[in-house]
Amino acid sequence: MAAIGEFVKGNAELPGKVATVFQFRLKNPDSAYVFDLKSNPGKVYAGEVEGQAARSSSATATSS
């Protein structure tokens, strides 16, 4: 996730192009991550979607 976060930081135009917040909930081990490509600057963080971004699209992925 750190590498994706660095990519988002280095590509300031992404929020304007993507304009979406993605919530990923993973299993085994249980974890959750947010790719906020709606806010400017965009950000990637562990946890649940916060505030206004909670109304955006989400995706769920399962790893085994």
Notes on the structure:
- By secondary structure, the protein is an alpha+beta fold.
- It has one domain (2-55): SCP2 sterol-binding domain (Nonspecific Lipid-transfer Protein, Chain A, 2-Layer Sandwich).
- Helices cover 22% and strands 28% of the residues.
- The chain is built from two helices and three strands; from the N terminus they run ααβββ.
- A three-stranded antiparallel sheet has the order 1-2-3.
- The radius of gyration is 12 Å and the shape is globular.
- The two termini are 18 Å apart.
- 11% of the residues are buried.
Features:
64 residues, alpha+beta, Nonspecific Lipid-transfer Protein, Chain A, three-stranded antiparallel beta sheet, 3 strands, 22% helix
Mean pLDDT: 83
Order of strands side by side in the largest beta sheet?
1-2-3
Within the CATH hierarchy, at the fold level, what is the topology?
Nonspecific Lipid-transfer Protein, Chain A
Computed structural class:
alpha+beta
- N-to-C SSE series? HHEEE
Biggest sheet statistics: 3 strands, antiparallel
Question: In CATH's first tier, which class applies?
Answer: Alpha Beta
- Going by CATH, what is the homologous superfamily? SCP2 sterol-binding domain
What's the helical proportion of residues? 10-25%
Number of strands: 3
The termini sit apart by 18 Å
